[in-house]
Structures are given as C-alpha cells and as structure tokens.
Amino acid sequence: MKTTLLKKLLTFLLPITIIPLLLMLIFYYIYLHKVLEDEIIDSQKKILNHIVYDIKERINIPSELDKHLEQAYISLPGLSIYDKEMNIISHNFEMKNNDEVNKKYYSEVLEQHFKKVFQRNNDDIFHDKKNHLLTKPIRNNNEIVAYAISNYKSAIDMKMITINHTFLYLLFVIIFTVFILSIFIIIFSLKLLHPLQLLIDGIKKITSGNLSFAIDNISNDEIGVVVDAFNTMTQKRKLVQEELQKIAILDGLTGLYNHKFFYTALENEIARGDRYNEFISLLLIDIDNFKIVNDTYGHIAGDTILIELSKRLMTRARTTDYVCRYGGEEIAIILVETDIIAAKAIADSLRLLIEKEPFLIEDGRYISITVSIGVSTYNNEAKDPSTIFMNADKALYEAKDSGRNCTCVFEKNND
Question: What is the residue-wise DSSP string for 39-77?
C-alpha cells in the first residue's frame, strides 16, 4: 500500500512539475527565436533604407561600391546589389566568381524572387519570408536603377547558436532540479503516508455516497488543512444536494410545489388517508380569462399575477396542505384531513379573497382577476390520484361553464 501510494504520488507530482517547466522553456525558445528574427529584420530594413540613399552615386563604380559596402555595412552580411537585369553589381561577402553567388542565393530562387519584386511598383521594402530576403529598390532621377538585397538567414543562424547554448544549459538545470526534487519528494512523502491513507479512505467513503462521513484529522500540517477543507466541502455538498432536491420539487416561477411533486404528494396523502380513515380533498384553481390578461398587459404582468396569487394562497394555506402549480395558470391545493363541505368553504373564501384584492403589476397599475375552482374529495368511488384529479377537473369545467368566478363541487351525477 505504501509503495502504491508513493508511486501514485510521484506519478502525479513529477509530470505536473517537469511538463510545465519544459513547456515554458519551449515557448521561451520559440519566443526568443521570433523576437530575434523580428529584431534582425527591423534592423536590416533600417540599414537597407539607409543604403538606398548612401550608394546612389556609387552604382556605376562597382570597385568603389564593393569597398564601401564591405567597410560601411559589415553588420549586414549577405548584402548585394543587383541591376534591373538580375546581374550582380556589388556585394559585401567573399566570393570567387558568380557561381559562388548562385550557391549563396540560388539562381532559381532569385529568379522567382525578382518576379515578385518586378510586380511591385513602389519603393517599399519587399519581404520574401519564404527565402529570407529583403529587397529595396534604388532610384536615381525617379527611375529604378538597381536593387539592394539582403539575405538575413545567416544573421539569424549566428544568433541562434547563442540561444541554443542557453537552451541546453537551461534544460540541464531543469533536469537536475527535477532529479533533486524527486529525491526530496520520496523522503518527505514517507512522513505523509498515514494521514494521506486516512484521507484516501475517507474520500472513497464520501464518493460512494456517504456525505455524512467526516475524515479523522490527525495532522496539524497542510494535510490537516486539506482534511478540514474536504470535510467542509463535503458538508457544503450535502447542503447543496439537499437544496437541489428541494429545487427539483418546486416550480421555478412561483415557488410552489411542481406538477411532478403534486402527484407524489396526492398519492402519499391518499394512502395515509386510507390507512387512518381520514378525509382528503382537492381544489383545482384556474384564473379566469388569463389569456386576455397576457394579451392586454403582457406576459411579464401575467407572471407577476401568478407569483402574487401563489403568495396569497400560500399565506392562507395550512402547514399540512400542499399548494402546487399544476400547469400554466392552474393551481392545485391538497387539503389534508378536510371533508368536502370544509373544502368548499375554503375554496369560496379563497375565491372571494382573490376577487376583492386587485394585483399590482410592474407599471404601477392594479388588475382585478377572478378564479374558478373545482372541488373533489377522496371517497369510495375516487381512491386513486388520477380519479380525484379528474373529478376536480370536471368540477372546474362546470364552474367555467357556469359563468366563471364560482366554485363547483364534483358530484357523482355531474358525470
């Protein structure tokens, strides 16, 4: 177990230690190469711009031009001057003949490069990234007489030698550091195995679903802090889970019990009423002409009315009753230990309360609404939730057909 735990610890710690360091080093290397290349290109562009004005008068004197380029632009290796026919005029690097030039620049590459240059009709420096060439037209009396070309690849290669040496040195330092760190982890982890094992065992119990379990904390160091934090997190998770369970049975708009919970509660209360021979009644409430309210005042006003209506019903409901949003503007109330006479009296009081007290909407206006209510009860002919609800629904339709704003009780002969 200790070997396994230590192996897991090293397997976890070493990758998260060495991989970020190597990634940082690689990105640093790429970044240096990019910065270096940009600096060299910017520097050579500035030099090329200066050359154009510096050698205008020497274009027709190649020997003097060679000497001048070699002395004045030694910091720009690979600089050469070509005429409009792609013939080399001068250069600042050693070569024996034109074949040397072809070897340095490659005739085919130059030919393709000049085709791109000739297509341009401005004095801006042309940057051929593919072949690492910078080209600047040289004008005399507003006419292009030659081209200054610089191959900056050799300059970059020389600079990269230094960067490569630095990179290898940093790589060695990282490998050595990781080696020392690994030894330190092995030694230090031996002191952590027991509290870590307790933590692992506790995590297994908690992840299996036992959120009431608390991990024993026998350490006062960082592991102890982790254990305390994990216990706190577990308790918070337990509270969140309880909250989620609560949310799962509530309607998002009104805060009433939702449709799914309605049938669960009705089934449970019917079973309890059957067991203890108690009355169970159901009210099904529907807002009259609610579509007209939405069409006239907007759906936000309709939602406001639903929310406020739910609050009023919850305020008048007993702690044993269940107030549920069945759907849309329909609200169902399960009345525990309530016979049909008492249920109708409660329904009438709620209906009158809703009729007499207008509802304030967001724009400051008051809207008066009425409701129709259907009442049914648990009896020998209605012993299951679907039958009781169907009876209440039939009574509700009778209330609607009777002109709305009234309460109707389901009776057997109604069917």
Answer: HHHHHHHHHHHHHHHHSGGGTT-HHHHHHHHHHH-TTST
The mean-pLDDT minimum among 298-307, 366-375, 378-387, 401-410 falls in: 378-387
Backbone angles phi, psi at 367, to 5 degrees: -120, 130
Distances (CA, A) of 336 to 3, 154, 241, 270, 282: 62, 92, 29, 9, 9
CA distance 211 to 238: 6
Q: How many CA atoms lie within 13 A of 187 on its CB side?
A: 6
How many Å is the Cα radius of gyration of the chain?
Answer: 44
| Burial zone of 363 (CB within 10 Å; 0-12 exposed, 13-18 middle, 19+ buried) | exposed
- Rounded (10°) CA dihedral 173, 177, 180, 182: -130
Buried b / exposed e over 129-162, threshold 16 CB at 10 Å, is eeebbbbbbbeeeeeebbbbbbbbeebbeebbee
For residue 242, count other CB atoms closer than 10 A to its CB.
11
CA distance 213 to 44: 70
- Whole-angstrom distance, CA of residue 279 vs CA of residue 270: 9
Whether residue 93 has pLDDT greater than 60: no
Work out the average pLDDT over 281-305.
94
Cβ pair 258, 251 in contact under 8 A: yes
Whether 356 and 306 have beta carbons less than 8 Å apart is answered as no
**Angstrom distance (rounded) from CA 343 to CA 105:** 101
